[in-house]
Amino acid sequence: MEISKEEKAYLLNIVALVLGQCVGMGKKLEELSFPPVPTQQLAEKCGAFVTYHIGKGADKELRGCIGYMEGIYPLWETVARMAYAAAFHDARFFPVGKKELPEISCEITVLTPFEPCVGIDEIEIGRHGILFECSGSRAVFLPQVPVEQGWNKTQTLEFLALKAGLPRNAWQNKNAKFYVFTGIVLEPEEAEE
């Protein structure tokens, strides 16, 4: 899967529209009207995450991240729904406030379908996102998370187990299952200073 410049601009515009209208003006997602979808690919069902950060450079901190791992809605609609959810419904944070808008940056991660992983040797840190399932619990890391955190493979799997609410070594359980996927990360271009 490849995302064209036009598709990238369209998806980033959706996030900006949701932030500006819903956070900035207090509208509900259902009240928004979106421009016509420019390509068939954006109308196909696809999983995606929307991530918000606040601050820049070394001071950049996570401010919200929610997504659908599988294709439930068309890609454009998934991005709209997740842009809203990440701003208002990430249980780790208070809803994004209007005063924060100038400091918020966004990132969209479009997901490829999940593929079963026979063993952890198949997992490539920085290339693969990982879905971990064990004892009725599951957790996921996008491909960029371990790289951003500076984790090696063992640390990544330990934090994945903890995120699933399991002991740190649960990834070594014989019943643990892993699935890998890749993500296409879309971010606005950095403005020239």
Your description of this structure?
- It is a single chain.
- By secondary structure, this protein is an alpha+beta fold.
- About 25% of the residues lie in helices and about 25% in strands.
- It is built from 4 helices and 8 strands, in the order αββαββββααββ.
- It has a 4-stranded antiparallel β-sheet with strand order 2-1-3-8, covered by helices on one side. A 4-stranded antiparallel β-sheet has the order 4-7-5-6.
- Helix 1 packs parallel to helix 2.
- The longest helix has 19 residues.
Compact summary:
The protein has 193 residues and is an alpha+beta fold. The chain contains four helices and eight strands; from the N terminus they run αββαββββααββ.
Any chance you could write out the topology, listing elements then pairs?
Layout: H1 5-23, E1 48-54, E2 61-68, H2 75-88, E3 104-111, E4 115-117, E5 129-134, E6 137-141, H3 144-149, H4 153-163, E7 177-181, E8 183-186
Antiparallel strand pairs: 1-2, 1-3, 3-8, 4-7, 5-6, 5-7
What characteristics describe this protein?
alpha+beta; 4-stranded antiparallel β-sheet; 193 residues; 4 helices
Note the total helix count: 4
Shape: globular
Report strand %.
Answer: 15-25%
Order of helices and strands: HEEHEEEEHHEE
What is the average per-residue confidence, as pLDDT, rounded to a whole number? Answer: 92
Largest sheet: 4 strands, antiparallel
Please bin the fraction of helical residues: 25-40%
- Radius of gyration of CA atoms, rounded to a whole number: 17 Å
Instruction: Report, as a whole number of angstroms, the end-to-end distance.
Output: 33 Å
- Structural category: alpha+beta
Low-pLDDT segments: none
Q: Number of DSSP strands? A: 8
The strands making up the biggest β-sheet line up spatially as 2-1-3-8
